[in-house]
Design brief:
Elements (H helix, E strand, L loop, with lengths): L19 H13 L1 H13 L3 H25 L5 H9 L2 H33 L7 H18 L10
Helix pairs in contact: 4-5, 5-6
Membrane topology: Multi-pass membrane protein
Protein name: APC family permease
Organism: Candidatus Nephthysia bennettiae
Amino acid sequence: MSATSKAPDPTAAEGRSLGYFLCWAIVFADIGTSVYYTPGILYHQAGVHAALFVCMTLVVFILLTIKYAEVAIRYPEGGGVVTVASRAIHAIAGLVGGLFILVDYFLTSALSALSGVIYLSVLLPALGPVVVPVTVLAISALGGLNLMGVSPAPGPAP
């Protein structure tokens, strides 16, 4: 490295963008799918008080959205919970936070797939006895597609 060249700043954002549609798709895949299976679980457990829980959840989601936006502004280089916990507390806290996020991703995908197959079994009653194997097959197929890599459809960027 010459005396006039500068080392890259590891905290600087790279100026890349996913675009609104891809950001929406990624966030919806993690948070938005809950809308499909949560009501069934909620109404079964809470009964007539379900509407109150929905309102309380809405308030929590709004507060969580504000915090997500704050983290994105304070840490434009990314890293989410790992970066925030590592810098605010300790590297071990960042590791634990990252592990919790991974567990969340696995549980969210499994629960979304299971509830999707259960809802599909209402339309196709023959699936009733094989809900779990079909769910495992669906998750395996999506995992295989993920390992192979799926490229976005060609077209103009958003």
